Amino acid sequence: MDPMIDIGSAVNEIHQIESLCMRCGENGTTxxxxxxxxxxxxxxxxxxxxxxxxxxxxxxxxxGQLQPRGRTYHLRVASSDKNTLDRxxxxxxxxxxxxxxxxxxxxxxxxxxxxxxxxxILMRAVNELEELQEERRKIDPGKAKALDEFLVKLKECASxxxxxxxxxxDPSGNSFIQNPFAPAPDPPLSIKYYQRTNEQQEALGFLVxxxxxxxxxxxxxxxxxxxxxxxxxxxxxxxxxxxTALLKYSAPEEVMTFPSTCGLCGIPCETRMFVTKIPYFxxxxxxxxTCDGCGDRSSELKAGGDVPDKxxxxxxxxxxxxxxxxxxxxxxxxxxxxxxLDLELGSGTLGGMVTTIxxxxxQIGENLDNLNSLHLGDSTTDGxxxxxxxxxxxxxxxxxxxxxxxxxxxxxxxxxxxxxVTDVIEDDHQLNFEDYERSWEQNExxxxxxxxxxxxxxxxxxSKTPK
Length: 467
Fold this sequence. Notes:
Belongs to the ZPR1 family. This protein folds into 4 domains: 3-62, Single Sheet (N-terminal domain of TfIIb), CATH 2.20.25.420; 70-178, ZPR1, A/B domain (Jelly Rolls, Sandwich); 213-303, N-terminal domain of TfIIb; 311-446, ZPR1, A/B domain (Jelly Rolls), CATH 2.60.120.1040. The protein has 11 helices and 27 strands. The chain has helices spanning 82-85, 118-130, 133-139, 141-159, 198-203, 241-246, 321-324, 357-371, 382-398, 440-446, 454-457, and strands at residues 14-20, 27-36, 42-49, 56-62, 70-77, 88-91, 96-99, 104-106, 114-117, 164-170, 176-177, 189-194, 209-212, 215-218, 233-237, 256-261, 268-277, 283-290, 297-303, 311-318, 327-330, 335-338, 343-345, 353-356, 405-411, 417-418, 431-436. A hairpin with a 5-residue loop joins strand 17 (268-277) and strand 18 (283-290).
């Protein structure tokens, strides 16, 4: 097996089966190993070896569950930057790799289940393209010449001779690019989360269509599995205490029940919905579904009302255990910053959640373990291991309140909330709200720059008479 596979993995029993070689058609041997990379996921490692034509192939498949959202990694590789080229990359069998300035793409079916480096993935692509060049020169010399010129450019990228962008897009959310600066932010690497389309869900094995007595129709699952649009919900989850936390503020006047379809198994189920008002926050819609068929339970909190004109920044000075027990509603667009740790999590990193400040810090630690999964592997230097353990220790000390610290939640949609601990919000001096004007870039990301309501404004303006 590829030595890269040994990154911190625990070896279990290896199984061997006979399988046909794709190159010569003779019987070969496939070795299968179920293992786990610490702080990452369960993996199925497969290594094929053909004794007849010496064909060898290694593959990594994920044994765990699909992630709630897809991920896009954008890595900027500077020229002569050997360290960036040596970053570990996990490419699942649903991921696509792109080099935009070369107009080059490695589709999901190529290099399936790869555990390598940036340089290794590019050099493997070079080798696979060069494999049939001699035959191409005989059949189509023009195409072979053009491919030779392209391979020169691709080799320049793999050697670090020229700068380029390395984009890894995985709808399953199971791919990964190493952050050597973890837990600090990674300047050349950005991560974007997105909701999968129906086509992507179908390709990954998600249920997209179901038939009922009236015929076939599209199913748009609710909860974690398939919000119709990005940033539509404030938070979602499968926690039984989800609704209980909200009812501390106000009880619903009416709970409505309507038929729905389970987002996992596709059978009919019921969804319960009510509208409530959280003081000093806004009107929210709470939806909860339970499926008797597969047992799936999901809860979702949606914002009511219009999009506010300004964003909101919430600053909490955490000084005691009471502050740790403050309720928090974090929207999926909000970013989280802790200045004392030089920690900043961009929008979408944690998703939306209804929790407490203590729960939020715990989730940050688990999420960083997941995102920077190979930082404690065998290939990591002792210095990086020490830095990461020191950071995790400092993060856990926040919950011990050894020193006061600051939590900042910045939400351009103003859909996040932290509970006050005094009867009057003005008396809570450790909690501050700051309104600010959104930048053009923030409005563009939210799709607000393209919204034009001027044609309808006349019907809401009493001073004008519609034609």
